[in-house]
Amino acid sequence: MTDSAVDLPPAGATAPDLVAASHEERIEARQARHAPWPAALHPLLVEALHARGVERPYSHQADAVERALAGRDVVVVTPTASGKSLCYILPVLDAWLRDPEARSLWLFPTKALAQDQLAALGDIAAHLPPGLRAATFDGDTPPGVRRAVRQAGHIVVTNPEMLHTGVLPHHTGWVRLFQQLRFVVVDELHSYRGVFGSHLANVLRRLRRLCHFYGSDPVVIACSATIANPRQLAERLLERPVDCVDESGAPRAERRLWFWNPPLVDGAMGVRRSATLEARRLTTELVRRRLQTLVFARSRGAVEVLLTYLQRLHPPPAPGRPGPVRGYRSGYLPLERRAIEAGLRDGSVRAVVSTNALELGIDVGRLDAAILLGYPGSVASTWQQLGRAGRRETTSLGVLIATDSPLDQFMVRHPKYLLDTPPESGLIDPDNLLVLGGHVQAAAFELAFAEGERFGTADVGTLLDCLAEDGLLHRSAGRYLWSADAFPAEAISLRTACAGNVVIIDTSTMPDGPGQGPHGQWAGSAGGRPGSHGRVVGEVDQFAAPVLVHDDAVYIHQGAQYHVERLDWEEKRAYIHPITVDYYTVAETRTSVAVLEIDGGPEGGDCRRCHGEVRISRLAAIYKKIRFLTHETIGAGPITVPEQDLHTSAAWLAFDPLALVGLDRAEVETGLTGLGAALHQAACLLCMCDPRDLGRHAELRGAKLPPAIGVPVAPLRPSAVTEPVEQVAGWRPVGERLDAPAAGWPTVYLYDSVPGGVGFAEHLFAEHRALLGAAVELVDGCDCRAGCPSCVGPPAASVDARRSTRALIDIALG
Ligand SMILES: [Zn+2]
Q1: What CATH topology corresponds to 43-245?
Q2: Theoretical Cys-Cys bridge with 805: which of 64, 112, 281, 792, CB 3.0 to 4.6 Å?
Q3: What spacing in Å lies between the alpha carbon of 699 and ligand 1's midpoint?
Q4: pLDDT (tens digit per residue) in 234-251
């Protein structure tokens, strides 16, 4: 690919033949900075690296390895593909070479990442004396192998969940690991934010407690993609000082970033050319120029639609052979994914259309170009996705193509905002009582607490007494012993996204053939069909199933179309068969909030504050058939699957319509959306949580507003250019949709995304002054004119979003 540079436009040009980018940013090339091998590193390792062609380490590798060898905890923060893994592989191998009994534990957030790193380790270990035993220990590990790993694994590669339920509670089976543990590796540190990070901090407290018991004190080596506060996050997770290595010594050629707004096709209506079609055009052009390209789309549906377009333009070399353009997303089978990753590395795959599934550190090598079809939703994700492009010798290209969403339009019009805004911080609160309480029980199960013993930095004396009073612990001779029958770790879920999957089965591979769907022979037999052994095409999580594989949907998998005969909701199966049609389907969902019980409030006058139990319901009610390429709607139908409910706790502000006189409807609507956005950000700071841990919902439609403000709502833009969006993100914040049937007062809700809640809502209700105060600071302190993603969200047409939001905050403050 060394001729890529000549194919890119010459320096200074904005490539009018490709796109009229509204802004081009150049990131200068960087020379490699090397350093000598740390003197303390075992000479056999230096030899092994020489044998692999590595003469000298990059400066950050030498720095990190030296610190780790000196026994210091370290966090390494350098770009994708800068050789981070060597920073922990070398100290770990060094320890093993000096003491064959030395052990280490590697934590990765996903299984796929773990596999990658084992492969990298194997490359080096091949040049070392034999005897090193490294193995993964996760849900897929067969029982027989588990035993061997427990007894003899020098390097145990696992994930936080497995450490939490499979290792720590069974520590007596892992004595040698705990006795000889020298290093703990925490890769992808930035993924441990919010509630998940708070859980991990407590899992690490339990780990260190057991290490202390068995007489070891491992050094921690963490790696992270760019976040605003890597050292702070690491120190909060580990509860001790951590060295930060963040100056990359890896070389990089020049990079160009284009911000690209598709041209208007109807100026009066503000309708732009489809971002998907523009992505198709650009990707095709890049592939033609032999530039290996990765396109990130925001949803599974969007991936498949763009992939369909690209595969038509770049068909497989022969029928049945894989083509040069592939898709990548959750729901593909593991073997499919591994093949695509390998194809990217060896160059046989020329372009991949992916969701953010490829954003994490899976090794696919470095690419020539990364195209973002829509702003990914955070500054950190944007840089991580763009960072996938960046070769050492040749210029690489990153392109952000804006869709017509207000957020995308803001980003593309204010490139400096994206370039200058620091990536989001990772916040955690390990001492959140609902998180801490469960782990203290798990810790007590593992090892009795001594009176006065701290749990990490937390004073848990009162908590232990309460647990003793509840009969879970037995207090005796200055110790708290676990005395219940329960296995406490099992009751704690580190992540909430553990909903069951729907399996997708191709009925055309069944003995009795396709077309057995809703009206077929076995229609209505709730248990699926007897003898149904069709090929499993893929999976989809329970939250997305009503949207992607409802009855009569067109399900697209690697660009191949299938008709969904039937979604068997009870059995969690979707039956499909191949078809060829010129449309795809898009489901529309509606979210609503129902208050089940008020636990606090109402307080206040014109603005009433409450907190309590709520039910958040998401319903996929109808689907549309959208014609390929023109994106016109050519049909629609109902979806009949049950509503999906989230029972959780919420805090909300409801405004007396009489207090809103003086604001017109558009201002109330904009203000309510802006208030939700500002409160959401303020709440994350107040609760030390991640934006994903909280949902927000604003309700206006149907609200009884005084006649004085009954200005008709501006009509929505025509839907001629419907992007293939899929309005699903698990229980992520629903964003700015104001579409719930509300009764009465305009209301803004903030709710815990975790079923049952972890106490954020109650905290926000109690601290409403601080919450509103922080929102005021955000709104007043922002440098924008009428609203931006840092304060109240991008401004709506003709309404000053900051002013409207401020007006509502003033009412709330009374
Ligand atoms: Zn702003």
Answers
A1: Rossmann fold (3.40.50)
A2: 792
A3: 23
A4: 999 999 999 999 999 998
Q: What is the Cα–Cα distance from 495 to 471, expressed in whole angstroms?
A: 28
CA angle 717, 722, 728 (to 5 degrees): 110
If DSSP codes are grouped into helix, strand and coil, which group holds residue 471?
A: coil
- Residue among 626, 638, 803 nearest 719 (CA): 626
Q: Cα of 43 to ligand 1 centre, how many Å?
A: 55
| Cross-strand partners of 612 | 598, 650
Whole-number mean pLDDT of the chain? 85
- Residue 392 CA, ligand 1 centroid: distance in Å: 37
| DSSP conformation class of 262 | P
Cα(690) to ligand 1 centroid in Å equals: 20
**Ligand 1 centroid to residue 795 C-alpha, Å:** 9
> Confidence band (pLDDT; 50, 70, 90) for 701?
low
Query: Does a cis peptide bond (omega within 30 degrees of 0) precede residue 578?
Result: no
**Statement: 4-22+252-420 belongs to CATH 3.90.79.10:** no
pLDDT-based confidence at 740, cuts 50/70/90?
very low
CB atoms within 10 A of CB 113: 20
Distance 673 CA to ligand 1 centre (A): 14
* Ligand 1 centroid from CA 678, angstroms: 10
Question: 92 and 155 in contact (C-beta within 8 Å)?
Answer: yes
What is the whole-number distance in angstroms between the Cα of residue 781 and the centre of ligand 1? 8
- For residue 417, report the distance from its CA to the centre of ligand 1, in Å: 10
Read off the pLDDT of residues 624-654 as tens digits, 9 standing for 90 and up. Answer: 999 999 889 999 999 988 888 888 999 999 9
Convert 478-532 into a string of H (helix), E (strand) and C (coil): CEEEECCCCCHHHHCCCCCCCCCEEEEEEHHHCCCCCCCCCCCCCCCCCCCCCCC
